[in-house]
Amino acid sequence: MRTSSGAVRGRTEDGLTVFRGIPFAQPPVGDARFAAPRRPRPWDGVRDAYDFGPPPPQDLGAAGTAGPPDVPGGDDWLTVNVWTPAPDPAAHRPVMVWIHGGAYKMGHSGSPAYDARRIAADGDLVVVTLNYRLGMEGFAHIEGAPANRGLLDQIAALAWVQDNIAAFGGDPDQVTIFGESAGAGSVAALLAMPRAAGLFRRAVAQSVPGTFFSAALAADIGTALAAELGLRPTVEDLSEVTPDQLVTAGQALAPKMPGNISRWGQAAPTVTPYAPVVDGEFLPVTPWQALTSGAARDVDLLVGHNRDENRLFTAMAGKLGQIGEDRASAALRLYAPGGEAAYRAAFPDASANDLYERVQTDWLFAMPSLHLAEAHLAGGGRSHVYELTWPAPAFDGALGACHALDIPLLFGTFQESLALLQFGGAEPSEEALALSARFRSSWTAFARTGDPGWPAYDTGQRLARVFDAEPAVAPYPEETSRRLWEGYEFAPLPLVDPKA
């Protein structure tokens, strides 16, 4: 198989041809460090594309659950992987390009959780997964470097798809990008980025985080990150330290962030010092502003979230079901539009724990996702909305439909990464397998036709697909929250008080 940079050799696996670790850009090291991605250097002969490329330097997370598997080391981080039913240039199959999540600081396309063979086989289409720079390398504000380097990497990968995917049996005019969590935030950003225009036809955004940084906030957090190393946030200073040292700086700052609410506002408790930056150049405005103005009206959008997103985080913190009035009140004061009283009045029978979970789920994922659909509709685009309400089976269902539960359901990878927590290591039930198949058939139908199998969203009926043991099409289930957040603007998170 010949690409624009050289020939590659894949392997046949389970009726598919799989290529791993194909460079779409040069290693971002040396004089390419902190720069926009550069086209890969050509190679002679045939390159074996058998193994995933090395993961970008990253924070492995508190439990290591989202960390990379045992893969070769090296600095060739910017690679793609391709699953195809047949590498036939005449096939013209739809293409799905997966962008992984991980709080913009962790994750790797080689994770077994993102094994795309079931999607490619069930949908009879080509699936591409990609790496992008994370943490300080990809998202921190660094003087002398372009903003949003991780997003620029994603654009470079999508350009590679345009140039090369036909040889793998894909149709470059039928590309769907899909991502979850930070991957969905990336999808939303790509919809708004002029450099990404024309690189994809459809987009799937699973649990869109509403956290986009203003330039001032990104600069202030970037200064704090560099200060952890005793340095300035400049290319000159930071080029002198290793990527692993930058990871360490992020790990050192994250637990200190909640103490900076007076300075960094809503961003502080997320303990994630990275997000796409509304820099006025590569990302001129937020995705919600861009879509309202019609920036992506020709792109079909499928967007949704899980009912109980935040329960994953309280479970991982060992606080599941244990949030008291003080923490609930603090969260309501910080996040609830209209203030604490509005949420308490809207949910009069909710416990402190439930109010805490609800407002955090609404602020971080549910309402940003719904508002993205409504912004796209306002700009002349077409959106389909869903909510996952089926509870994870572990802990007798106490996790609910928590964050990232859609990943094992979509990929069918029930024994990997966070699925081990959500499914308790048990074999999936027939009910889970049926729901998993339903996810894949909906996503691949959308990639093929723009119709996932239920009506497009509108502001009259507000119909959505509810994914549960018995799926249904019904008015958007979180109507109480929707009304509370009606008219709210997901603006770039500000630097609240630089003197605090």
From TrEMBL:
This is Carboxylic ester hydrolase. Pfam families: COesterase. Transmembrane segments: none annotated. Belongs to the type-B carboxylesterase/lipase family. Keywords: Hydrolase. InterPro entries: AB_hydrolase_fold, CarbesteraseB, Carboxylesterase_B_AS, Type-B_Carboxylest/Lipase. Residues 41-50 have a biased composition (Basic and acidic residues). Residues 2-453 form the Carboxylesterase type B domain. Its EC number is 3.1.1.-. It comes from the Bacteria. It is an enzyme of class 3 (hydrolase). Residues 29-73 are annotated as: Disordered. Signal peptide: none annotated.
